[in-house]
Amino acid sequence: MGWTEADIRAVVGPQRCRVLMGLNPTPALPADTPEDAFLHKVRQLARREGWLCYHTHRSERSEPGFPDLVLTKPGRLIFAELKSATGKLTPFQHTWLDLLRHSVAHVEVYCWRPADYAEIVAILTRRTP
Predict the structure, then answer these.
(1) Which long-range contacts (CB under 8 A, 24 or more apart) does 108-111 make?
(2) Is 4 a member of any domain?
(3) How does pLDDT run across 83-94, given as a tens digit for each residue?
(4) pTM (2 decimals)?
């Protein structure tokens, strides 16, 4: 017996279901998407999917290297650094991401680029285990 659209929707959620069934493929972002436009697109997606989002707009007085985004919803916590296609992580960013990745069980830590947008959609639309 095959999976129905309702079966898939129940497991992965409605948005991801449409993507998996080829009804609404996730458009790729151009490789030259500026980081601020990329950040806006990811925050927009996250809010639409019910995530609480935090981003420090002016980081001059903040700890150097702290990730661009903190996203949370029941059962999930994500730290994400966003980079342009050619952007490089600083040593401070490497340190933060590595320490966060190994801080507590089940925390999700990512460095995302515009080319990763389809994966980002999959991550943010995935249901809590």
Answers:
(1) 108/76, 108/77, 108/78, 108/79, 109/67, 109/78, 109/79, 109/80, 110/78, 110/79, 110/80, 110/81, 111/80, 111/81, 111/82, 111/83
(2) no
(3) 999 999 999 999
(4) 0.77
